[in-house]
Amino acid sequence: MNKRDNAVVVAMLKANAGIVEPALKKYLSEDDAHLKVLLDAERYSTFAGGKRIRPALVLEFCRLFGGDEKAALPYACAIELVHTYSLIHDDLPCMDNDALRRGKPTCHVAFGEAVALLAGDALLTRAFEIAAQNRPPDRAAEAVAELARAAGSFGMIGGQVLDLSGETSTLDFETLLRMYRLKTGALIGAAAELGCIAAGLDKNDARRRAAAAYAENIGLVFQIIDDLLDVTGSSELLGKACRKDAARGKTTIMTYYTPEQAKQFAAGLTEAAVASISGYPGSETLCALAYYLLERES
Amino acid sequence: MNKRDNAVVVAMLKANAGIVEPALKKYLSEDDAHLKVLLDAERYSTFAGGKRIRPALVLEFCRLFGGDEKAALPYACAIELVHTYSLIHDDLPCMDNDALRRGKPTCHVAFGEAVALLAGDALLTRAFEIAAQNRPPDRAAEAVAELARAAGSFGMIGGQVLDLSGETSTLDFETLLRMYRLKTGALIGAAAELGCIAAGLDKNDARRRAAAAYAENIGLVFQIIDDLLDVTGSSELLGKACRKDAARGKTTIMTYYTPEQAKQFAAGLTEAAVASISGYPGSETLCALAYYLLERES
Fold first, then answer.
1. Closest by Cβ to B141, choosing from A32, A125, A137
2. Rounded to whole angstroms, what are the CA distances from A172 to A40, A177, A181, A255, B127?
3. Residue A101 host element (H or E)
4. Gap between the terminal Cα atoms of chain A
5. pLDDT at residue A102, as a whole number
6. What is the pLDDT of residue B94?
7. pLDDT in tens, B98-107
């Protein structure tokens, strides 16, 4: 297999999405006439056509290290719900005020601000419920704690705060990278960790540390490419508005680098990601995923 | 002891707050120059002077059923953080748009809407992290699942949605009671359940069912008295604006009952609450708490 085989990555993402989506549908299937607008909003945003990269990482790392994918599936769903909640809240008028996401009206445009706020809250809450109900319970408790740490003040939410402060003042380069690590890297890191937890690996297992290093690097790459595409990409391909960062005077990698330098920087991080896991037999697809995320155009 | 001894209740709440507040301070103590505004907002709302009724219930039920209060303390803190997050989000402009809470500016007035949104998200997330890290892990996982269920779409958040729909259409009496049960009763019920979980009681233990019945009833009473005080109380005593419900045309117990009838209805629920636990030796203070919540004026 070519190490940059996009077809393999696309097939892998599709196969994992084929496992995750029915499970998500089941988790969000309960109906209630009085709560219809809330439940519809939760489903609308959860099934808005994401690539399901985070849940794929959970399942792939679980398999890579010999775990049963059934043990990883609830964590994969939980991570995707946390990701979905973060998008809903991030799009709200008091945050990024985005009207379009994946080519569709954002949750608050479709359902109103109050319902979008509550749907985000509900998906975050449901994520922890799903993770906590997984078996065995000691691993479930560890997974909840890990997911909460990654999503919390010193993880994704902290990253959002840094991102906001990068709109009113210029973040120095180190702080910018920290913002990327927290805002995007933390949850991607948690995906790798939860896959390892499902496979029964302890915190100090070298395989788990390798997975975390891979994920931290591809998380950084993911956000760098996001900000690069905001400058060089097209709204049509991305399914969302472009050139937003410059319009807001926001600090991004483009504040410091030319597009070519940014891409080169991301390529170095991608090599580091690949190096950390390529020694494990079966890691080829995950390595190819790293290159795929580097080269993506949407 | 007089069954309506308010002094005993006040002393009990104060003693429990004296245990819970230092623990909350410790959980929210981490500092970070880049995240100062977020962490300050989390602490501002958490230490805004609540009565700490929910954490008191966790600790009291744990003690009542022979548990070690140390095992209950993380759950007590987690419940209070979930309660605090719900107040922050509930006060946001897209929800109730309240400027005053417990006599102080609400979080979004003090820190801006984006930070208030994220601080709420962060406290909810931290709550699950704290609960998940408690020991033993199997009980921690059960506690997280119970807390998430009570806080989620078919608990507190569902109650908020019903509450919102009660502003644009009149809820029938049954739906109104369901709204009360979800919006307020669910989290108060979870407080009782988490105390029982900390004491090692199984889901089907009769003591746990008694605690849940007590909590469901005092939760209903709590919300009924809240809505009664909105009509009959004073802003000065309550530390928040009054007469809001009528101004918004919101369905409350006052849509169906006179103040006297509402009070009588709440008194019946209080007797039911007391009856469900009064057979357990040591339950006197919890019984007195039920009367205290019925008679409160703020």
1. A137
2. 41, 9, 14, 10, 32
3. strand A100-101
4. 24
5. 86
6. 96
7. 999 988 999 9
Domain boundaries, chain A: 6-295
Bin A239: left if φ > 0, else alpha if -120 < ψ < 50, else beta. left
Contact list in A for residue B145 (CB cut-off 8 A) is 129, 132-133
The average confidence (pLDDT) of chain A is: 95
Contact across the interface for B132 and A129, Cβ inside 8 Å: no
Given pLDDT bands bounded at 50, 70 and 90, which one contains residue A247? confident
Q: Which ipTM was obtained for this model?
A: 0.96
In the three-class reduction of DSSP (H, G, I as helix; E, B as strand; rest coil), residue B100 is classed as strand
To the question of domain B6-295 being in CATH 1.10.600.10, the answer is yes
* Contact (CB<8Å) A32/B154: yes
From the candidates A79, A157, A173, A203, which should be mutated to test the interface with B, based on the most B CB atoms within 10 A? A157
Percent of chain B whose predicted confidence (pLDDT) is above 90? 88
Measured between CA atoms, how close is B107 to chain A, in angstroms?
A: 14
Element (DSSP H or E) covering residue A105:
strand A104-105
How far is the alpha carbon of A192 from chain B, nearest alpha carbon, in Å? 18
Joined tokens for residue A122: 């509900």
Whole-number Cα distances in Å, A161 to A83, A176, B174: 16, 12, 42
- pTM of the entire predicted model: 0.96
Number of cross-chain residue pairs from A and B with Cβ atoms under 8 Å apart:
167
